[in-house]
Amino acid sequence: MEIGKIKSELIYKAVRSSGAGGQNVNKVSSKVVLSFDLRNSQSLSDEEKLLVETKLSNRLTSENILILNCDEDRSQLKNKEIVTKRFLELLKNALIIPKIRKATKIPKSIIRKRIKDKKNISEIKNNRKKPDFG
Question: Could you tell me where the DSSP H helices lie in 28-107?
C-alpha cells in the first residue's frame, strides 16, 4: 500500500456544514466529503481491492465508492486532514489479513483430571444422602 499514490486518487469536495453555528454555517463550506473509487484505483492490487471490498462492503456504494464526511472543525483544512487520517486508518485496518486459528488437541492428562474431579464431586454428593437401611 503506497500512501502517496492513494492520496493522489482521493477526491475532496467542500460542502456547507449543517447544524448550529449562526451566519458562519450559511456562507462557509467547511464540511469535507472524501470519495475514493475502489474499482478504478491504480494503487491497490486486485487482491487488496477484493479484501477491502469484503471488509468495507457496508460502507461502499453500489459503484464501489467509499465516501467519508467530516464537519468536526470550523476549518476546512483541518476537516480535510481529519477525514484523510480517518480514511487511511480505515484502509489500513481493512487490509489486515486475520491469522487462521489452529485447532489444538486437548491433552489426555486434562481429560483424565476432569473425569477424576467429576467422580470426586459425585462421591461427595452421594455421601450427603441419608443412608438406606432397607
Answer: 46-55, 76-94
The residue among 86, 88, 55, 57 whose CA lies nearest residue 69 is 86
Phi, psi of 11 (to 5 degrees): -115, 120
- Residue 21 CA to residue 74 CA, distance in Å, equals 9
What is the distance between the alpha carbons of residues 28 and 8, in angstroms, rounded to a whole number?
25
Ramachandran region of residue 105, left (φ > 0), alpha (ψ -120 to 50) or beta? beta
Q: Are 76 and 24 a contacting pair, CB within 8 Å? A: no
Question: Can you list the domains of the chain with their CATH numbers?
Answer: 3-94 (3.30.160.20)
The set of cell numbers assigned to 107 is 491433552
Q: pLDDT (tens digit, 0 to 9) for every residue of the chain, 134 residues total?
A: 678 888 888 899 888 877 666 666 667 788 899 999 988 888 888 898 899 889 888 988 899 899 999 988 888 899 999 999 999 999 999 888 889 999 999 999 999 999 999 999 999 999 998 888 76
pTM, entire model: 0.68
